[in-house]
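Section 5.1 Outputs to date
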Amino acid sequence: MADAGLISAFVERWHRETNSFHLPFGEMTITLDDVVTLLHISPHGKFFDAPLNMNTNNAARAAHEYLGATWEEACAEISYNKCAQYRLQWLRDLYSRLIQTNQFECAARTYLLHLVGCTIFADKTHTHVEAKYITLFIDLHRCRDYSWASVALVFLYDNLGDGAVHDTRQCWIYEHFPRTCKQGDRGAVPAHLPRACRWNAKHVEGGLMTYRRRLDALLLKDVVFTPYDDDRANPPFVSISMFSGYLRCGGVSVPYLPERCLRQFGRIQCIPRDVPPMQDNIDLVVFSVFRVTFLRRRFSDAVEQLSLHIWP
């Protein structure tokens, strides 16, 4: 159950220039570490290069070639949606038929596209997924090569102002602000399940005005900056979560600035640097071949700068 008042109260404090929530005591954000821990997806790998020409014709062709739909079915679906998207219900129906006809490779792509459409790429309709994401699964053997945590975080940052991906945001709020809202805590979850499975929003207790007042009155004692310390083995902390710079998914680049929220990494907050601009001489086509593993070289510099701010 989405708590619309809770989500709206936090979205009002979201600043796109820093991609962080501005709260009475400072800034906080959803970090790569949060995404890795809550969703159990990897931060390592390559950025996703979304096709720039995914129009309705190409969306129909992709559904026919990679999802196993007939050409007539694919054209009818795109015509119904009037855009380069697929309905999640259409994907479910297609998947069932593909299984019955033993088209397992197409069924796997259909299942995975439906999965990301319900989770990390869930838009405000919660009924459609963009056709461009099918390119993530053309080669099923290379799906694991992507930095899924980066992909999810870029989509979340880019869509945080609307009704998309509310589940991840709400779980993040439950972890860091347990006194601000009422939630159902199922307790420890099995090691193979994401930590987000711990939470059950079974009761909405306040509206937007109620949560606004609570956020205005927040004190440091009301916040859990490092909620995952009790379960760091599953999954372990990855140092790349403290990379500072830009993350990219397709044609969208977003600033990722953990130095503005050092308390979420168990460190003392210092005055952060200004938001670094995207360099004019970086060609995004060339930038697209960068890997998150490449960013590790930048991480060593960040550690040196932040070393004076580690808790003794």
